[in-house]
Design brief:
- The complex is a heterodimer of chains A (1120) and B (906).
- Helix content of chain A is 46%, strand content 12%.
- Chain A has a six-stranded parallel sheet with strand order 3-2-6-7-1-8, with helices on both faces. In chain A, strands 11-18-15-12-14-13 form a six-stranded parallel sheet, sandwiched between helices. A five-stranded mixed sheet of chain A has the order 20-21-22-23-24, with helices on both faces.
- In chain A, helix 10 packs antiparallel against helix 14 and helix 20 packs across helix 33.
- Chain A has 1120 residues and is of the alpha/beta class.
- Chain A has 39 helices and 24 strands.
- The longest helix of chain A has 28 residues.
- By secondary structure, chain B is an alpha/beta fold.
- Helices cover 48% and strands 13% of the residues of chain B.
- In chain B, the strands form six sheets. Chain B has a six-stranded parallel sheet with strand order 9-16-15-10-14-11. In chain B, strands 1-8-7-2-4 form a five-stranded parallel sheet. A five-stranded mixed sheet of chain B has the order 20-21-22-23-24.
- In chain B, helix 14 packs across helix 15, helix 17 runs antiparallel to helix 18 and helix 26 packs antiparallel against helix 27.
- The complex binds iron/sulfur cluster.
- The site of iron/sulfur cluster has 12 residues of chain B, from helix 27, helix 34 and helix 35.
Amino acid sequence: MSVDTPVSDADARRRALEPGGSFIVQAPAGSGKTELLTQRCLCLLATVEYPEEVLAITFTRKAAGEMRERILSALHAASAPCPDEAHRAVTWRLARAAADRDRARGWNLLATPGRLRVQTIDGLCATLTRQLPVLSALGAAPTVLEAPEPHYEAAARRAVAALETDLAAALEVLLPHLENDVERLVRLIAGLLPRREQWLHHLLGAYPREALEAALRNTVTDQLERAATACPSALAPELLRLARFAAAHVDDPAHPLAGWAAAERLPGAGLAERARWLGLAELLLTRGGPNLRKRVDARQGFPAPSQAADAQDKVLFKQAKADFAALAAALGGHPDFLAELDECRYLPPPHYEDAQWAVLQALGEVLVRAAAELQLVFAEHAEVDFVEVHLRALQALGGEDDPTDLALALDYRLRHILVDEFQDTSSGLYRLLCRLTAGWQPGDGRTLFLVGDPMQSIYGFREAEVGLFLETRARGIGDLHLEPLALEVNFRSQANLVAWVHRAFAAVLPATADPAAGAVPYSPSVPVRAAEAEAGVDVVAAALRDDAAEAERIVGVVRETLARDPRASVAVLGRNRSHLLPGARALKAAGISFQAVELEPLAELSVVQDLRSLTRALLHGADRPAGCNVLRAPWCGLALPDLLATVGEGCDEPVWPRLAEPAVAAALSTDGRRRLARVRRVLADALAWRRRLPLCRWVEGVWIALGGPATLDRAIEREAAAAYFELLGRESHAGDLPDLQAFDRALARLYAPPDPAADGRVQLMTMHKAKGLEFDVVILPGLGRRPRQDELPLLDWQERPGRHGDIGLLLAPIRPTRDAAEPIQAYLRRLGAARSRLEDGRLLYVAATRARRRLYLLGHAAAGAGPGRAQPDAQSLLARLWPAVETAFAALPAAAPAPAPAAPAGWPLRRLPADWAPTALDLRPLGTPTAPTVQDVEEQIPFDWAGQTARHVGTLVHRWLERFARDGAARWSPAQVDALQPRLEAALRILGVGDEHLPEAAARCTRALRNVLNDPRGRWILGDHPEHRAEYALTAWQDGRVRHYVIDRTFVDADGTRWVIDYKTGQHLGGDVEAFLDREQERYRAQLETYATLWRELERRPVRLGLYFPLLPAWRDWSP
Amino acid sequence: MPSSADPTTPLDSSALENVSLDAACERGATILTVNKRLARQLLGRREQALAARGGRVWETPKVLPWAAWLVQAYQALVDDGHHRRHPLSATQERLLWEAVIERSQAGGTLLRSDAAATAAVTAHRLLLEWGLERRQLLVEGATETRAFLGWLDDFERRCAAGGWLSAAALGQQVERALGDGAWAPPAQLVLAGFDEWTPQQRSLLERLRAAGTRLARLTEPAAGAAPRRLAFDDAAAETDAAARWARARLARNPTARIGIAVPDLRERRALLGDRLCRVLQPEQFAAGRAGEQAPFGFSLGPPLAEHPLVGDALAALDLAAGERSWLEVGRFLRSPFFAGGTDEWAACSALDRQLRAARRPAISAERLAGAFRQGPSGAGRCPRRAAAFARFRRLVAGLPRRAAPSDWAGHFDSLLTALGWPGDRPLDSAEFQAVRRFRDLLTEFAGLDRVVNRQGLSGVVAVLRRMAAEALFQPEDGTPPIEVLGLLEADGLRFDHLWIMGLDDERWPPPAAPHPLLPAALQRRLGLPHASAERERDYAGRLLERLGAAAPEIVASHARRAADRALRPSPLLSGWPEAKAAELLPPEPAPDPWSVAPPAPLDAVPDAAAPPTPRELRGGAHLLSAQALCPFSAVAGYRLRAIEPETPCEAPDGRIRGDIVHLALAELWGRLGGLEALRAADADTAVATAVRVSVERALAEASRQRPDLYRPRLLALERARLVDLLLAWLSLEAERAPFLVEHRETRQDLELVGLHLRIRADRVDRLADGRCVVIDYKTGARAGPGDWTGARLTEPQLPLYAVASERPVAGALIARLKAGSLAWLGMTAVDGIAPGIEPFAGTDELADWPALLAHWRERLTALAAELRQGVAVATPGLDACRYCAFPPLCRKAEAETSAGAAADVG
Ligand code: SF4
């Protein structure tokens, strides 16, 4: 196999496995970086004391799982003989060494795989904060929310509400800026809070106008300097001459060229020179881009010769135009200069207007406040977002000057850190890495290993900073210099594909690196796999967007591919989820099963909509739409006339009570009556169970009883229903859905579960999700489509490393609602747009390099006037790929837009037959559960709040009477009881008697105990009789169930009678004690007679029952 | 056993005398178990054995958990006067720590001081149980440990001052008392289920032995298991299989004792409950009442606070604190757990709907009471809930501003009683238990006087709520044959069949988790629980070994995947032979509740016609608009009135803001009268004044309706904005041909083919020639004239006003009042009526202005006729459906998929 022959980058690969060095590795698509990471992990494991000293950070949990799996597999395989293939032998040898280390140190990694530290950044931060609850100031691991939006909104709302309290000044500036639209401001702030990791630290520090304006000025002068540098010096004299000529021929002193009139040289980088650059741009470039002017006229200071006052001028004018044409032709060879000159036209003003500044400052204050409010909201709910965990982890790691000693907290020292996908590092992770490696020195045995491919940096929308890769490669991290290594071998794709990618992306990606602008140039790959017969890349060009045709084409390609090789894998990769939907529908229609994650929103299916209505109707008795729909859904299916009669024409009352009204039923058709009767019965039954079952189970049960499952004929509907109930289970609390809007939001995020029948040969996913995967054939649909646009944020900012190493912050506020433009904002937007164009190019690179054998590119570009003038939408991916695919579109005929197909109107109502009835289940019955164990009846007295203290007194008196009986009453005298008071108080307090009741309660206990000891009857009861027991616990098997009893006092008297006595510590205030005792005797007769039956089971003695009232004291006894 | 009798050798568990359960009971020995569950099972097993032997009544054996035994021993010390200190309950202890932490420097800024308190409680327990030296902690500890030690000092100071004792210190106290001779040791103790002893336990046991207590160890013969393991695709499949297996075992032997043990019961509880219900009670499940009398039970319930009955009680107590959010008020109104909860449910729900119509996010008790009293649907319809709430409010009025928990507990009880809690329905067994548990909780809460300051209602409700959130509650119906429990809880128990699930390599052995407040290295050295991976592995291995002998049939299982990660079997299972699912599971498919309703062929009936519309129908111009867009939506919205309850707004939204502009303009033109006022000599000041006054009026009205939205500063900002807006707008009015404003928001009746419509034009102007112009103000972003020349007038307002006008109409204008894009839009008969509007030039079909007016009349009449006839066909369209609320009713999604499905077939 060719893979085993030494590869061109073998040196880099060897170097990467040196345990003492720190490296940053550029690993293009298909270069086998995961294997390299695994190998390095193994090689490091063989050198450390504890496996925990090696930390690998991956981008996703999935990647962490895979890497852990690889390491473990390698360790497993280490006990087998060395494999023959060279690259596997490398891994084997490394694993062997690691396994030896494992054995020598007794780690037993295979039995405790948890010791391998392979984590995502989220996981790492969670670990850090868990182990450092005080330093991270979290207190304990809080719940981390997947969807924290409501908290953002709450925080934003509170901040804006401070208009009426202490944030008036700022909000009084900010709100009018947005036409006092509070809701909009709240929404915009809430939209910024998830990105606070980016802006908060800027806003928190001093916020000096001077520094920010300096950044603006630097931006301007940097750009002017670039223009000056790019200006071809050979052409300078001619430029100067013609510009002066033009300046002399414009009359308007405000004309951009006017400043050139007395110019002696070309302008430099000074702020004052900006006007002349603009004039030059006006002269040389047409509007809207770095395009050379082909013709000049009077507007640019080149009057038409025909306008000349005299012949001399006429010649002069004519000559000037000719000179200009010559100059233009010469400048055509300097596109970079034209581009830089063009850029000068969009520069921001070098300072803020006072009004702008006021808004910016106000905005800063409000945002800082919102971030503070967010902390409070988090604290109230004991929930945070992932960002907070990052921020807290960072905080826990300590400042630069006083880093936290992690070894103490974690019980191991971090010696080696490996980071995968470093190109998608956010500045947050970067800072975390800096702290983790604070104080690391080259050669001190601690190493950092960063792997990534800047060409595959595609997470800009999640704050990934591709520039960090380039910067780090150039400067290292902290004191740690990282040796750059580059892999170049592509193990994945056939040679033709590699060659195409090489040609295409050398043109698509920028020529030079620019960390600040996020520009990454192409770096080439060398194929290992041989070229196949086919070219590898097919461009399917269309003149018009036609999703259906494109989808058909996808089906065709998939069919063809699988027909040729049934084991081939095909992936359809879309930029957005919506770009995949047409293909998904067409594949389904064609009967091709596929795997897709989070593709089809379930909320759009009627089964889910009906379930939502059923849920709402069951929860809210006056939710009329839900009520109507329960009667309309296929399980009931009332036709419109019946439905109107049932719910009442134009009426706003709850639907539910009407269902039971005879008058309503009378107004229905026979069919309607039958349907309604069945559904009403089910619903009436259901309501008796309101809030008694988990909501999901209740709703599902009602739905089944209504016949819901009978109405589903497609597998996806059944899965959707199951997914709905699962969601309902997750979102409900205490049998209710407290916030229906929140539920709807969660419902909108619900997608069809993966098709269980799909074997993974055909997969649909977004390009982002495809990162790290590979397929035989890759289809990229919808390349001509324009992505959707989001609402513009409130604050634009950009950290901009200046040309002189200084980092400036560019900040712009949102433009006022009523104004058309805000120049600083426009400038930043322009930078942002350029960045995302660059990222789009990389996204295409990622998508295209997923293919092993063949790549299909599907897109449309509107045909312009005449053949060969097709132009893709400027925002589309196709526009990025244009240089590589333009030729395929050249031959497209101009086509007229097809008329939109008319939507069908009206359709039949689908419903169960009116006589539908459930089927009985044929099941083997199960035994009934064991009957409950019943406690002594005395325990189940009704709750009596006021009686709590009395109950505690009773408990304590019982306890002491047991004690007296155990010790023998003779040992205790009434006088001793008085001395017990403090002990009794202590015991009562422990039982839960409040301070204010304590003396009274203790007094009552003392009285009871003294009474007993003073009372001959009491002394007799406590006396030393044969077989006496106190608090005697018995268990009985009665009526097939177990019962537990506790008997206060029992003994056998001299006559051989078994006494069974119960103490009653109730008080009786007022007269007629005898009547009270009679009542008590009746009340407890049954209880005591049960005791008697117990004793009859145990022995043959006569039983006599007694009730003793120590507080009175009084006594009743009888024979059962 | 010689060594166990020798008091000088260190105690060794394996060297203790072994006794069986029966022998121990017959000896009358006290059996101490490691936890409550084991005590219960031992008791139950003994009972079963005796009952099987024909026993009827017997002395209850003394089986109790170690912790309860310590409490009893301590009680004796108190009764004997040796001790007075009050052992803290778990809640008291946590609250005390929390107070300590919140006051400390390190703890004051914590996001979750409550959770830190929980951690501190554990750290303190470990410190006592393992006899950790503070000095050592100081030497080895970093910030976290130092913070903890600081808290500990304060905690101990407070304990000493308050006469309290940490529950974790009981063992020490008893041991000391034993040494002092203050406590008589029991004659014999049998220990059950202790895998290992903490140093504290060991030392107490050694002392007991020295004092002459006969110690023994409860042992039972291994159940002779041949454990096997199974792998499943995911946790759901694994759970399904376990449920089917349990059903099969139970069907074979109804008295079998079946266990399902899970390492992460808390996370899996919902899934397990769901699958067990489906498989074991499919009939009940299909009737919406699964869970009653279930043949399975969980060892661990959800928090008590999540029981509906308790959750609603807590929420209701909050109502006493003042304004509550509309969601909470709605929850109270819909709750079945208060008076009228059954019969008045629909009426109370209607009341909620009515309250929501006012769109207030927060509702005071006063407002709610008012709604009960005078809601348009009448208090008569939920009299019992209304009366209960009135009683409640009377009590609320008499509540103290601040009080101690024991006071509050009494108030809470009476407040809930006043509301008729726990409701009119007879309680089922689970509800009965929940009520009892909640009352126990209230009692415990009443015992917090000395750890919780006297404070106001909301503070104490929060404390109670937290207690309820921490108290797990599992209603019990006897001992069900199938027990679902955590792995640790299953330790020591015996079953006939045991399935241990979730044994994958991520969970078992669990990763090391040293306590964050104690030095990690120290914990590892001393072998504290969870301190290191090695310890976890050994512990997990031993536990699994014991579980592997706990039943004659043992199955272990794990999933192969979780989310997007692959899982391996726990390495500790490597010795267990792998089985095939088919060997263990019954051949028939799992019972499925859905199969009571197998897919049935559906009827399809045409349904595009409603009965004729009555003459009177609310809706006005919007009704016709809906009919034009999609006739079904008109039926749904105006005849079925399937209208969602309102959602409250927390800030003025577009609707409210638009209304204010309308109001202000109506006011303004009332003052100005017409164009002349704008052109008068002194116009500038007069107009400015008129604008100010009009804005003032409009805002006064808005803030009268919603004082919560329009508070002073926002009001001031809005005043400025509106004045600017109106002044800017007037400059566009000034460019018009002369006019007089004739109507402002005037109601008008219009009869179209027997349909009576009530309409109201924003404004009607009269021109110099006597003709009039109808005007509509639009403040939204999407303000533009609709298609007024097409067949269906989907924006029929202005045409409708034109048709209704008694004078000839010369124009229909939309005033777009959006800052930054103020403009006149619309159509006029002649030039100059409004700036920027060209006169109607005719189209192919409509030659001129009169033809347009005729077209409007004809189209509107046709629409009205459609309505009258009951045309109700759904006509989906991009615009119509985008903001439509009726897709489930019109069955659009269904029609699309069935069309798609039909296409699939074709
Ligand atoms: S969703 Fe569309 S088709 Fe259905 S009622 Fe609304 S507008 Fe008509």
